[in-house]
Specification:
Blueprint lengths: L1 H23 L10 H30 L4 H37 L3 H28 L1 H7 L4 H6 L1 H9 L1 H16 L3 H24 L9 H25 L15 H33 L3 H17 L1 H19 L3 H28 L1 H6 L5 H15 L2 H16 L4 H25 L4 H25 L8
């Protein structure tokens, strides 16, 4: 009995030690340690990082909801537009990460750092292209999205500030992707924790004018978010210039290479394309939802925010799997790459089953945290409950698609996204919403149907094994 207790106690101590190592960061070779430990050490900080990223959205919508349904709808519409920034940021991050992780696996830290530098320069350039028209044409963009006159005339400054400040969103994604691909996921976690603390403090102060701060309303939420993310980006750049693990960017040693930038952009184009396809499909869904009024749009906005928060473990595991795929391919260990993916899918399935049960059972209390409007609550409940039914299949597909990206095969996921989101999801949403009497619920069902088809196609592509031979 004592010996059994000691074995259990030792196992628990090892688990807590691994959690501590994962959060504080550990200098290990992920191509040589056990796959279970590698996935654990990477996924813990990555899941927490996703949590930190989602807290931005949750905190903003929590405080903005006190300003009324029109303010909530403004955040929802703006977030839909900003997803274009997310698309480029995530796509560029995926392309950069695939190259950095491969170089790390090859033990070529100089090339890894040089690739990271080029990814940052590309992110800054893309942000400039978005910021200029975004600041000056915010009202026109909101009108195209079907916003009400109140939103366009009274709340468009929120959209203008968010689009003008998209630099901090873009660079935050790209640089954290660089840290993750190098195995430094704990640093990415600390960066977002800092950004969130600043945002949580400033949000209520700037929105409601607490203490010496001016009462800026919905504009205050945009300013608080940009300040929080901006400080985080400065901290990221400081770490890179100072040097962290395998990565160290020296301005004096690194030179801009047209050839490297070209390869990085070509690889990232596929990733950006697939995210843009998903993003534009979400924009189309928001446009369909907006035809049913601000209350329905507000409920949808709240429901999607809760969903994004709930699938964070899935996204963290997917990022961890992608990193392991890239590094192990760089180390000429495709067997470990594939084994990492299957382990991640098994763990993810169990986690998302449990999350789905919780969301279906406690749907109403979760939505009521954000609003007391009966109409908004009803729409939010329908959105959250219906989409939750498809969590398991979505999580499985997400890991497969991310793993293909981690291998540098960005073309296959792009084709999959075109088929599932443009050719299936959007037409299906319109048909179910307008021609079957299902209204907004038809949109919600179209989401889980298209995700299921995406997963089946991704499974076929992954099992073909062609991704193992992709050169980046």
């Amino acid at each position: 009995m004592i010996e059994k207790f000691n074995r259990i106690s030792l196992k628990q101590r090892n688990i807590f030690k691994n959690i501590a190592d994962a959060i504080k960061g550990s200098d290990v070779d992920y191509t040589k340690i056990s796959i279970k430990r590698a996935l654990f050490l990477l996924s813990i900080p990555m899941v927490l990082e996703m949590l930190m990223e989602s807290v931005f959205a949750i905190v903003d919508i929590y405080f903005v909801s006190r300003l009324g349904s029109e303010a909530i709808a403004t955040v929802g519409l703006t977030e839909s537009i900003i997803t274009l920034v997310y698309a480029i940021g995530i796509g560029l991050s995926l392309g950069t990460s695939a190259m950095v992780s491969r170089r790390i696996g090859e033990k070529d830290n100089v090339k890894a750092s040089n690739t990271a530098f080029h990814g940052i320069i590309a992110g800054f350039a893309f942000s400039t292209i978005i910021a200029i028209p975004g600041m000056f044409f915010a009202k026109d963009i909101l009108q195209l999205m079907g916003a009400s006159e109140i939103i366009v005339n009274e709340h468009s400054s929120f959209t203008s500030i968010m689009l003008g400040g998209n630099y901090v969103i873009m660079l935050l994604f790209v640089i954290n992707g660089i840290f993750r691909s190098a195995g430094n996921a704990a640093i990415a976690l600390r960066v977002l924790a800092l950004a969130n603390v600043i945002n949580i403090v400033l949000d209520p102060c700037l929105i409601f004018g607490i203490g010496p701060f001016p009462e800026l309303g919905i504009e205050g939420a945009a300013i608080a978010t940009n300040i929080g993310r901006g400080v985080a980006v400065i901290y990221q750049l400081y770490i890179l210039l100072k040097g962290s693990g395998a990565l160290s960017i020296s301005i004096r040693k690194i030179r801009l290479s047209i050839d490297l930038m070209g390869r990085l952009i070509r690889l990232s184009i596929g990733s950006i394309g697939q995210i843009l396809i998903m993003t534009t499909s979400w924009l189309a869904l928001v446009r369909v939802i907006s035809t049913f009024g601000s209350d329905v749009l507000s409920g949808y906005t709240i429901g999607i925010r809760v969903i994004i928060f709930a699938i964070l473990p899935c996204n963290g595991l997917a990022n961890a799997a992608a990193t392991l795929v890239g590094q192990n391919l760089g180390a000429s260990r495709p067997d470990r790459s594939e084994e990492s993916v299957w382990l991640a899918t098994r763990v993810n399935t169990v986690i998302l089953i449990l999350i789905s049960i919780v969301l279906v059972v406690f749907t109403e209390p979760l939505i009521c945290v954000f609003t007391s409007d009966p109409c908004v609550i009803k729409s939010g409940i329908d959105c959250l409950r219906i989409v939750s039914y498809g969590f398991v299949i979505f999580g499985f597909g997400s890991i497969l698609v991310n793993s293909l990206n981690g291998a540098g095969d960005t073309k296959s996921p792009t084709i999959i996204n075109i088929l599932c989101f443009w050719c299936l999801e959007i037409p299906l949403a319109c048909f179910l919403a307008f021609y079957t009497g299902m209204n907004e619920n038809g949109v919600f069902y179209s989401i889980i149907i298209s995700e299921a088809v995406m997963t089946l196609i991704a499974l076929y592509v992954f099992r073909s094994g062609k991704w193992k031979y992709k050169e980046v």
